């Protein structure tokens, strides 16, 4: 649905040139929810703004639904934007216009006849659960309600793509959840491809199918969310994952541990299996769970456990090999003394 | 300093006429300033860097003309515009003639205030309208003007108050008005009664305009 090809965006400042986006290539499939994660300044916001050409890339091109946007003239680009919805961190509603007028703006842009605007706005308001707020001004709405208006405005012309620029970053956790639920519903029921940029890893974990991690304008890691959570390759990715799934052991516990500390990752169905008890029965070792949890990412279980193994060095090595064969990943954090 | 009530009563018709002349001049100048200054203010804003009609040449040419008119002292502008005034209204004295130069001075003044009101709009709102596929005209009409409405009303208030002051100078060409009266009688003839009265009228008038302007700006704001 979206192909980003060797895209770079260079900003000229007094201090010289800054590469906001540095040679990024990504493919986002139809019907997918794609997350782009990074700290502020990583270039994710510039990247998403290039997708609908709010920012014009310095080099490279963007193809959305088969059309290379970088070749379009202004009126053609305007038409193309009708098919690409966008929502924002600070909602960006017109404060002096009612909810109805804010949504109607998109329809007027698509030259929908006035007689049809009313019905369509009401339909959209029903979808986002704000039918009773039709004639209210944005100032009287909560953050979550404002974002719902933003979503209704973005979806007014049945776009194929919805871009979300930190759409939940200004919302509290409960409201974030409800907005994510709405985005999920939109993705499923309307088959809209969603590109979501965020610095919150829980958002990605909650709804994204695939993701990219950005740093310094570059994509450092990319893939299925589940795979990235199960086996992150880059240090930055680990950092982000630890922000939602943390296995830090308290210092006092670490001091008491004398055996080999290992981290075991179970994927998919294997998570339910009793790999650990099998191991302890098979080898002359003892196991002691120190930390662990099973998370569900895209409805697939991902189990991560930290345990202490005690016993002979040779036996532990054999046990580790055995666990390694049956699980996704086993990693020695610290060898026993 | 002396205040003579009888003298004041005797002078009332003249004060009344002067006040009407002031209103007349301000009304014309304000009307012209809004009709021309508003589009000029919009143009200054939308042709600036990063906006949808970005155009360096237009922006700088308009900016230069606006600055130029604003930098000329009003009394000089008044005299310089005499040929234009005569051509336009076939006269160089009286309130109508004075309105011409008052209008010319008020246009760039108001245009800058409009531009400032637009600059206060959160750029994200404009960006969202562009992303939604809005045409430039739609964005001006449905986003920029509504969002800046309160600021534009404050700009009108400031323009009117400034016109009250400037219109006094118009008396130099026999423009008439309260300010003119204050200068001719109060200042040149040491007529304390007239001076105090006209100054009080001007103070009350300006306070009222500010009060009403602020009130309207607040009422129309839906924030």
Automatic annotation (TrEMBL), chain A:
<keyword id="KW-0067">ATP-binding</keyword>
<dbReference type="GO" id="GO:0006865">
    <property type="term" value="P:amino acid transport"/>
</dbReference>
<keyword id="KW-0029">Amino-acid transport</keyword>
<comment type="similarity">
    <text>Belongs to the ABC transporter superfamily.</text>
</comment>
<dbReference type="InterPro" id="IPR018449">
    <property type="entry name" value="NIL_domain"/>
</dbReference>
<dbReference type="GO" id="GO:0016887">
    <property type="term" value="F:ATP hydrolysis activity"/>
</dbReference>
<dbReference type="GO" id="GO:0005524">
    <property type="term" value="F:ATP binding"/>
</dbReference>
<dbReference type="Pfam" id="PF00005">
    <property type="entry name" value="ABC_tran"/>
</dbReference>
<feature type="domain" description="ABC transporter">
    <location>
        <begin position="2"/>
        <end position="241"/>
    </location>
</feature>
<dbReference type="GO" id="GO:0005886">
    <property type="term" value="C:plasma membrane"/>
</dbReference>
<dbReference type="InterPro" id="IPR050086">
    <property type="entry name" value="MetN_ABC_transporter-like"/>
</dbReference>
<keyword id="KW-0472">Membrane</keyword>
<dbReference type="InterPro" id="IPR003593">
    <property type="entry name" value="AAA+_ATPase"/>
</dbReference>
<dbReference type="InterPro" id="IPR003439">
    <property type="entry name" value="ABC_transporter-like_ATP-bd"/>
</dbReference>
<dbReference type="InterPro" id="IPR027417">
    <property type="entry name" value="P-loop_NTPase"/>
</dbReference>
<keyword id="KW-1003">Cell membrane</keyword>
<keyword id="KW-0813">Transport</keyword>
<dbReference type="InterPro" id="IPR045865">
    <property type="entry name" value="ACT-like_dom_sf"/>
</dbReference>
<keyword id="KW-1278">Translocase</keyword>
<dbReference type="InterPro" id="IPR017871">
    <property type="entry name" value="ABC_transporter-like_CS"/>
</dbReference>
<protein>
    <submittedName>
        <fullName>Methionine ABC transporter ATP-binding protein</fullName>
    </submittedName>
</protein>
<dbReference type="Pfam" id="PF09383">
    <property type="entry name" value="NIL"/>
</dbReference>
From TrEMBL, chain B:
<dbReference type="InterPro" id="IPR051322">
    <property type="entry name" value="AA_ABC_Transporter_Permease"/>
</dbReference>
<feature type="transmembrane region" description="Helical">
    <location>
        <begin position="92"/>
        <end position="111"/>
    </location>
</feature>
<dbReference type="Pfam" id="PF00528">
    <property type="entry name" value="BPD_transp_1"/>
</dbReference>
<feature type="transmembrane region" description="Helical">
    <location>
        <begin position="152"/>
        <end position="173"/>
    </location>
</feature>
<feature type="transmembrane region" description="Helical">
    <location>
        <begin position="194"/>
        <end position="213"/>
    </location>
</feature>
<protein>
    <submittedName>
        <fullName>ABC transporter permease</fullName>
    </submittedName>
</protein>
<dbReference type="InterPro" id="IPR000515">
    <property type="entry name" value="MetI-like"/>
</dbReference>
<dbReference type="InterPro" id="IPR035906">
    <property type="entry name" value="MetI-like_sf"/>
</dbReference>
<keyword id="KW-1003">Cell membrane</keyword>
<feature type="domain" description="ABC transmembrane type-1">
    <location>
        <begin position="19"/>
        <end position="213"/>
    </location>
</feature>
<feature type="transmembrane region" description="Helical">
    <location>
        <begin position="23"/>
        <end position="46"/>
    </location>
</feature>
<comment type="similarity">
    <text>Belongs to the binding-protein-dependent transport system permease family. CysTW subfamily.</text>
</comment>
<keyword id="KW-0812">Transmembrane</keyword>
<keyword id="KW-1133">Transmembrane helix</keyword>
<dbReference type="GO" id="GO:0005886">
    <property type="term" value="C:plasma membrane"/>
</dbReference>
<keyword id="KW-0813">Transport</keyword>
<feature type="transmembrane region" description="Helical">
    <location>
        <begin position="58"/>
        <end position="86"/>
    </location>
</feature>
<keyword id="KW-0472">Membrane</keyword>
<dbReference type="GO" id="GO:0048473">
    <property type="term" value="P:D-methionine transmembrane transport"/>
</dbReference>
């Amino acid at each position: 649905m979206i192909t980003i090809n060797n895209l770079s965006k260079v900003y000229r400042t007094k201090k010289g040139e800054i590469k906001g986006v540095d040679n990024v290539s990504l493919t986002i499939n139809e019907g997918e929810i794609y997350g782009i994660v990074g700290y502020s300044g990583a270039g994710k916001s510039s990247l998403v703004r290039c997708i609908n050409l709010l920012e014009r890339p310095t080099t490279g091109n963007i193809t959305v639904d088969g059309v290379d946007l970088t070749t379009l003239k202004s009126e053609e680009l305007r038409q193309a934007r009708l098919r690409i919805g966008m929502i924002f961190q600070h909602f960006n509603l017109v404060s002096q216009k009612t909810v109805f007028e804010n949504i109607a703006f998109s329809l007027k842009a698509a030259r929908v006849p006035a007689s049809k605007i009313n019905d369509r706005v009401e339909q959209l308001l029903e979808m986002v659960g704000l039918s009773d707020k039709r004639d209210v001004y944005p100032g009287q709405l909560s953050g979550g309600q404002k974002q719902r208006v933003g979503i209704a405005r973005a979806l007014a012309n049945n776009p194929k793509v919805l871009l979300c620029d930190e759409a939940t970053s200004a919302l509290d956790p409960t409201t974030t959840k409800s907005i994510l639920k709405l985005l999920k519903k939109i993705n499923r029921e309307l088959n809209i491809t969603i590109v979501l940029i965020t610095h919150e890893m829980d958002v990605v974990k909650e709804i994204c199918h695939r993701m990219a991690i950005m740093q310094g304008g570059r994509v450092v890691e990319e893939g299925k969310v589940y795979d990235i959570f199960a086996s992150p390759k880059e240090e930055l990715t680990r950092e982000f994952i630890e922000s939602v799934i943390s296995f830090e052991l308290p210092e006092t516990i670490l001091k008491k541990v004398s055996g080999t500390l290992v981290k075991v990752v179970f994927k998919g169905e294997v998570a339910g299996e009793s790999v650990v008890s099998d191991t302890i029965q098979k080898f002359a070792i003892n196991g002691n769970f120190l930390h662990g949890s099973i998370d569900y990412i895209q409805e697939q279980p991902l189990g991560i456990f930290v345990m202490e193994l005690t016993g002979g060095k040779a036996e532990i090595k054999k046990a580790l090999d055995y666990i390694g064969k049956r699980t996704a990943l086993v990693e020695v954090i610290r060898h026993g003394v | 300093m002396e205040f003579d009530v009888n003298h004041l009563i005797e002078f009332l018709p003249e004060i009344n006429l002067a006040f009407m002349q002031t209103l007349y001049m301000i009304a014309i100048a304000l009307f012209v300033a809004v009709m021309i200054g508003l589009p000029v203010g919009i143009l200054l804003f939308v042709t600036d860097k990063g906006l949808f009609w970005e155009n360096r040449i237009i922006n700088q040419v308009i900016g230069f003309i606006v600055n130029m008119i604003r930098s000329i002292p009003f009394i000089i502008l008044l005299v310089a515009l005499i040929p234009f005034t005569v051509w336009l209204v076939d006269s160089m004295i009286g309130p109508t003639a004075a309105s011409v130069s008052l209008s010319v001075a008020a246009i760039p003044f108001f245009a800058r205030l409009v531009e400032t009101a637009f600059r206060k709009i959160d750029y994200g709102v404009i960006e969202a309208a562009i992303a939604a596929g809005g045409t430039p005209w739609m964005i001006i009409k449905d986003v920029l003007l509504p969002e800046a409405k309160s600021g534009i009303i404050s700009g009108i208030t400031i323009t009117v108050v400034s016109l009250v002051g400037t219109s006094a100078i118009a008396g130099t060409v026999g423009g008439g008005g309260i300010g003119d009266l204050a200068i001719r009688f109060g200042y040149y003839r040491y007529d304390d009664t007239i001076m105090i009265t006209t100054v009080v009228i001007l103070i009350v008038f300006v306070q009222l305009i500010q009060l009403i302007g602020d009130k309207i700006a607040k009422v129309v704001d839906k924030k």
